[in-house]
Amino acid sequence: MTALRMRARDFLTDGELADVRQRVTWKGVALIAHAWALIIGAIALVAWWPNPLTYVFAVAVIGSRQLGLAILMHDGAHGCLSADEKTNLALSQWFCAYPVFAETRAYRRYHLQHHARTQQEDDPDLVLSAPFPITKLSYRRKFIRDITGQTGYQQRKAQLLNALGPKDWPWRQRAAHFREKLGPQCLVNAAMFAALAAAGVWWAYPLLWLVPLLTWMMVITRIRNIAEHAVVPDSSDPLRNTRTTHANVLERLFIAPYYVNYHLEHHLLFYVPCYNLPKVHRLLSASRHAGRMEVQPGYAAVLRLATTKPNRDDRPGQVVSSVRRAQSGAAVDANQANGGF
């Protein structure tokens, strides 16, 4: 199957395209600063007022900003954080990708194939959307694995083993391979731990960085993957093989940061910075294409669509198959920095 091809000028005028294509460095920096300000603020809140409620709140906020950093890394992979490529790559790598154990250039190579072959047989992200719809029981099991850290642990374990290379390699070769794959990420995370220790809150690194990374970020990464491409109406139509999901204030805070919910607009014009996607959405919504666009009113609505399979069909063989697909998707995410944006 081959997806329909549509040009940018099929959607917007030359003037509108020139406007939404503008990449402004200070706006990219501002979004990165916003993510880190919320992370630091959440850590400060727990340090100042430690109790179960502030801790759970901080984990949810920090996990959402870790996803936010991955989203901004994704913008960097598209060259959208800055018009200057060196600045774009530096911002994407050191302030977005490395802190969450990702890498922009490897992600870019993989991710562009997803854009070229969206929802087709050779789409590398198809494994993330193909199993849906599933049963509510199946989603509940996935949610439990995500929130308890099982999914995150498996992803990071796969990433670590991949970085170490085959066991039969000499240790020098394995060490060099590890430095190439995860060296900068470990360096940045060591610096983060040192900074927190110097501030007298060393415990914040395991409890307020690693725990959100392994739990809440996994929960909302799965929700994001489902919202973007699962149970779409038409895999060959670029207006219907991906989805935009309206997000309220709470959803933007805890689930869908930095305009990631405007995924249909991103696929149509993937060189547009994320902060211009709402403008693209308004233009498309006022165009002749509005009626064809796959848009849902919120993430709860998407999850209802994705869990419409009757529970009686959730037989053991299907569960095993679903788990294997999920594990395959986890490996993709671990190696390719949460692919599927």
Automatic annotation (TrEMBL):
Looking at the keywords, is tRNA processing present? no
- One GO CC term, this protein: membrane
Q: PANTHER family annotated for this entry?
A: DELTA(5) FATTY ACID DESATURASE C-RELATED (PTHR19353:SF19), FATTY ACID DESATURASE 2 (PTHR19353)
Q: Highest taxon of the source? A: Bacteria
Q: Where is this region: Disordered?
A: 311-341
Membrane-spanning residues where? 29-49, 182-203
All copies of domain Fatty acid desaturase, residue ranges = 51-286
Which GO biological process categories is it annotated with?
lipid biosynthetic process
Q: What is this protein called?
A: Fatty acid desaturase domain-containing protein
One Gene Ontology MF term? oxidoreductase activity, acting on paired donors, with oxidation of a pair of donors resulting in the reduction of molecular oxygen to two molecules of water
Under the heading InterPro entries, the entry gives: FA_desaturase_dom, Fatty_acid_desaturase
- List the source organism: Bradyrhizobium cosmicum
A Pfam family assignment: FA_desaturase
